[in-house]
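Case 694 in the screening queue. Each case pairs one protein sequence with one candidate compound; here the compound is zinc ion. For every case the pipeline is the same: read the inputs, emit a complex structure as tokens, and attach any notable structural observations.

Predict complex for case 694.
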Amino acid sequence: MLKSVFGDSLNTADVTKFTASRARDYIFLTAYISDSVAPLHCGHLMLLPAPVFLHNGVSSLKLHHAMAVNQHWINGNLLRRWRRRCDKLNHDACQKWPESSVLSSAVCPNWFIDTWRMCLVRGISGVPYVALSYVWGQEPFFKTTQQNLAQLQLHGALTDSHRLLGVPRTIADAIAAVGLLDERYLWVDALCIVQNDDITRHAEINKMAFIYAGASITIIAAQGEDANYGLRGLRSISRPRSRSQDIFAVAKGYDIVETQKCSDTPSFWASRGWTYQEHMFARRCLYFENNGVVWSCKCSSFSGDVQENPGSTLRWVARQPSLYADVFSIPFPSLHGYGELLRSYNMRNFTHQQDALSAFAGITTSLSRTFKGGFICGLPLMFLDIALCWQPFNNNCERRLPSEDKEATELGLPSWSWVGWKCEPDPWAWHHGNDYAKKSQALTRRMDTQQTLPTINWFSRKWGTKETTPISYPQSMMQELKTLAVEGNELPLGWKRFDYSVDPEELRWESLYYNSFKPPRYIYKHEHDQNSEFWYPIPSWYDTEEAQLIDASHSDTLLCASTRRAWLWLEGRLETYQMAVSIRDNQGKWVGALRLQMPLSSTNPNDSTNSKEMIACELVAISAGYVIEGGNADAIDEWKVEERPKGPPGEKYEYYNVLWVEWKDGIAYRKALGRVMKSAWEAQDLEWIDLVLG
Ligand SMILES: [Zn+2]
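Case 694 output:
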């Protein structure tokens, strides 16, 4: 380990003087030889992600010190001490999920495990409880069903549970660990959701954000690949752990203890889909990982291997599943922020592919307060047309199809939503959805001149029915607000209009937002947020009381619309970072570009992406759009491509957003998304069709 800090040439026996100084997130080490003035070697010890601590002799630096720990057992008192410290230090952010204004505290789980009476009890609103986040694994295990529910409510029903009933170790250990945290009630999905009651199960899944945000502490069983691994190292509760420490003598009086092995591969727990929102909403986490135990709340982190120095100003950063968890605390809908969440979620794995939507339902439900109208299969209705233009980063998308062992519709998850594909969505494709924000701390705002323009009215239809429901309203309401604002018409409640006086420096950038470099006349502010400035008023959570429990987990939804279709050709890879190809007309003329979701060779084994062969493709228009020439357009693959005809700066590059589709049994499935230049599209032999997207 020292070699990696100082390099191969350090011989610790020669070191006569040794100093350490602390920077923000690392320790700077200097080794001297024979009291020479010039240091012999210098090095950094990173504190994160593999914390390394000096053992002694540097108290003046107010560092936390490494502790020698018992190899097999965790000090159980620590857990209680950490919990009490967080309580006592008045960590406000830990006592209450900061977005509790979004999440209703009245929502309460249906069932708890009462660890005193060892049975299931009805959930009681306002009662503190611990939640468990863990992985199920492949082995079946004991769960609550309609058949055993009555029996599980009898006093003592869960005593000696893992032997008598087959409750797996991780759950049994968590039941016992609740007492170490000064709590009484535990919520575990397998026991607190009646697994074969579809109606209540569905309702509980939609409440998942509230359940984890409402938990006093979430125990995270991050080690092991199934529910039988247990929470290792809790004496007289669980099996022993195996915690090794490496101690290096760096100089006389200085030891360095490597307390945690750095691991490049995330835990199995962190790779699973269901655990994402559990972690996202948990306020105080107790991790069992790497044979150690770590507390992480909003305000601090404690590790079982570290002796805290009370005077230390060093603070560990609480761990977040996404840097963009902020999206929950913004009173306005941030489509870009939402896209960033998907990026860290959508590559996760599921035993049942069709769970990808349900395991995200807590997130969409809690965001429904700012995203008016809620979500349809993971796409926000307020931004429907932009959202439908989601793009993957790479062409290694895998279609999520229902697993055979579970009852599911033939359709599975829709191909028109990101959720129908295991892929990493590109948040820049959605960035211009934040175009209302002029200046705001909370919202990402970067120059972007792209606009998406609705061209069709969308309807949704449940699989197997004929009835359609119009769904374009939330988006047209946004469009209306935008138009009214630009024209200076009446304002929604809470909004004020200000004349926009152009700062020349600002003009250079911001005016690009509106067409043709013409600066807008007004900016807008909301009465509850004096620091942010907007180009137009938009709905916010100030307008509503609480997040509604919108049923966001129905997957078998078809999107219907009347639109136009054309047949064109794909040929020639674009020289961009993304896997994009050119779209050509019958004469071979360049008319647009399309980003592949899968290599072309998988649909036609004789083709490679670089092949010169033309591939016929059926394209349907789903919206229009433009970007101003001379501006940035990161999401437009063809932006810098030579073949694209370019206008002078300030002119619009206009196009139609098109889906490449393939039909099966009267339903069209998305294969990829692209753009065809407006003039070229309108010159095609276009045909009106009733599009039914599955
Ligand atoms: Zn705290």
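Case 694 observations:
- The CA atoms of residues 363 and 502 lie 39 Å apart.
- Residues 76-246+260-307 form one domain.
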